Structures are given as structure tokens and as C-alpha cells.
Backbone:
């Protein structure tokens, strides 16, 4: 943790790469959640249409909506994964490198930390690393998709019940749906967390150790089992810091959004509307900055956890310089 803090502090380039990777892999949904107005049951019914479902089953309109939604979601996942893979590869390379030489260089951090972040050989290029990381992340989405597909019918049943007979309107609908299907929700969370841990180790091996995708995936599966305590502590620290940072940030965005919405809807005047809009923009920027720093620290923490366990090649015997006059 000390090494990750020293390596992340004062290096905004790492923050930028980490923020792009975080947003592209779904973090934008976390930051946008406080200001998203979810559709009501009446709104969903109007979108689907009264004739979309009959005694014979789903109608053409409902099938078209489902197909379009699945296709759009798949396209977003693929594009987001590729963009995040490029940012993640650039982040890993920048964490251990001083320049584009392909090897660890002299970093602007303490020598002990640079030694922890040293790699035993050349790292993968940006293009090769991006393709490998994207392949790894997409492959590990398969178990998560399977778990989500198994939980989907239960979620739909709970969502229908909450839309028709809400249990507590003060709690957002997604949270009520997750609470209403605890077993299915826990299974999806476990599948997501396992994919993040295995994918994190595998992606770093693919970039920092220049390992092909099959070897990186195999090692990523074994790494948490070889060092369970270190893995548990690393993941726990990463999640704890993320919650400590993101929960207040999202709360501030939600409060600023609520103030701006009331000022604009209630016609509170130009000064109040401008002030609350500026406050909302400032809250968003602050949330992006803290999310970027937390994501960079979280990524560097896992990088140090991996590299400190990678065997270093033993130094060879010293070779005497030839004597020019001998």
C-alpha cells in the first residue's frame, strides 16, 4: 500500500489512464446513477405497447425491442472493453516505465518503490497489450454473463412486484430489486469479483511480463490460490478505498443535482439556477478527480502485489572490462 501510494501521488498521467479505464468498464454508470431518472411502470408499458404481449407470446414489437437492446448492450460492452483495455495497458506501462523503451526505467518515485515496480524483462507494446487485455476481459465476461442470465428471471419478477406494489419508494428501484433476490445478486457479485481478480492478475501478466493470453489467463487463475492472504488483503483494501471515496462523491453529485433540478423546475431565478448549475458541474469534476486517483491507486496496488511475487532473474557474474593496454 505504501509503494502504491508513493507511485500514484503526483503522477496525473496515471490518474487519467485509470479514469478512462474505470469509466469505459462501467464506472460511468456509477457516477451517473445519482442523476438518472428511472422509468416508471406506466412509462415502460407505453414503450412496450399494449399489443406487444398476447396469449400467443411476445409480439414482433417486443421481440424487436429486446433484440435491439441486447445488440446495443453487446456493442457497448465490446467497445467499452477495448477502450478500457487500451487505457489499462497504457496505465500498466506508465506505472513501471519512464519512457517508451519497453523496460522499467528511472521512475520519479523513491528507489525502494521503483525496485518493487521493476519488471524482469521487456513489457508488451501498447497494441499487443491492448489486444491481449481486451481478449482476457471479454473471456472473463462469459461466467459473469452466465450468472447474470441465471439471475435475470428472478430480478424481473422482483422488479415487476416493486413496480406494481412498491415496498419502499424511498429506496431506489435497483437496490430494492437486488435486496429482493439476495441469492441471485450475491452470485452475480461473486462472479464479478472473481473475474476482476483473475482478470487483474492476467492483464498485468499479459502487459508487464509479455505473456500470451492463454498463459496469462492460466497464471491469473493460479495467482489468487498461490497467495490467498495477499490477494484477500489487496482486494479488501482496494474495495474499501473505493467505497470510502466513491460513496461521498456520488452523494455530493446527487445533492448538487437535486438542488439544480429544484432551482430550474421551480424557477428560482437566474442567480439560483446559475449557482446550482455551477455547483453541479463542480461536484461532477470533483467526483471525477477523486475517482481517477482512487482507480490509479487501486490499479497500482494490485500491480505491486503481483510484481513483488514475480521471481527476479539472479544477477550474473561480473565480467571484467578488457585492459586496453594488456
Residues:
Amino acid at each position: 500500500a505504501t509503494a502504491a501510494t508513493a507511485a500514484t501521488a503526483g503522477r496525473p498521467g496515471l490518474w487519467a489512464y485509470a479514469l478512462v479505464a474505470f469509466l469505459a468498464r462501467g464506472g460511468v454508470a456509477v457516477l451517473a446513477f445519482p442523476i438518472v431518472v428511472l422509468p416508471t411502470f406506466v412509462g415502460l408499458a407505453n414503450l412496450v405497447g399494449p399489443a406487444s404481449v398476447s396469449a400467443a407470446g411476445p409480439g414482433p414489437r417486443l421481440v424487436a425491442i429486446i433484440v435491439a437492446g441486447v445488440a446495443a448492450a453487446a456493442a457497448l460492452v465490446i467497445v467499452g472493453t477495448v477502450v478500457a483495455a487500451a487505457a489499462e495497458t497504457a496505465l500498466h506501462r506508465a506505472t513501471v516505465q519512464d519512457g517508451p523503451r519497453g523496460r522499467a526505467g528511472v521512475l520519479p518515485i523513491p528507489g525502494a518503490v521503483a525496485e518493487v515496480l521493476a519488471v524482469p524483462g521487456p513489457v508488451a507494446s501498447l497494441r499487443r497489450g491492448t489486444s491481449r487485455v481486451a481478449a482476457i476481459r471479454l473471456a472473463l465476461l462469459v461466467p459473469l454473463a452466465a450468472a447474470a442470465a441465471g439471475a435475470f428471471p428472478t430480478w424481473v419478477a422482483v422488479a415487476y412486484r416493486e413496480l406494481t406494489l412498491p415496498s419502499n419508494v424511498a429506496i431506489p428501484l435497483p437496490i430494492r430489486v437486488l435486496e429482493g433476490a439476495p441469492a441471485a445478486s450475491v452470485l452475480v457479485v461473486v462472479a464479478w469479483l472473481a473475474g476482476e481478480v483473475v482478470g487483474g492478475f492476467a492483464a498485468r501478466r499479459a502487459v508487464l511480463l509479455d505473456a500470451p493470453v492463454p498463459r496469462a489467463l492460466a497464471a491469473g487463475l493460479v495467482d489468487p490460490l498461490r497467495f490467498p492472504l495477499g490477494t484477500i488483503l489487496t482486494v479488501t483494501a482496494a474495495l474499501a478505498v473505493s467505497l470510502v471515496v466513491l460513496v461521498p462523491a456520488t452523494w455530493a453529485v446527487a445533492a448538487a443535482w437535486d438542488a439544480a433540478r429544484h432551482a430550474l423546475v421551480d424557477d428560482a431565478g437566474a442567480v439560483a439556477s446559475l449557482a446550482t448549475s455551477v455547483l453541479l458541474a463542480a461536484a461532477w469534476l470533483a467526483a471525477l478527480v477523486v475517482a481517477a486517483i482512487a482507480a490509479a491507486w487501486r490499479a497500482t496496488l494490485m500491480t505491486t502485489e503481483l510484481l513483488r511475487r514475480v521471481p527476479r532473474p539472479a544477477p550474473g557474474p561480473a565480467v571484467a572490462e578488457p585492459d586496453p593496454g594488456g
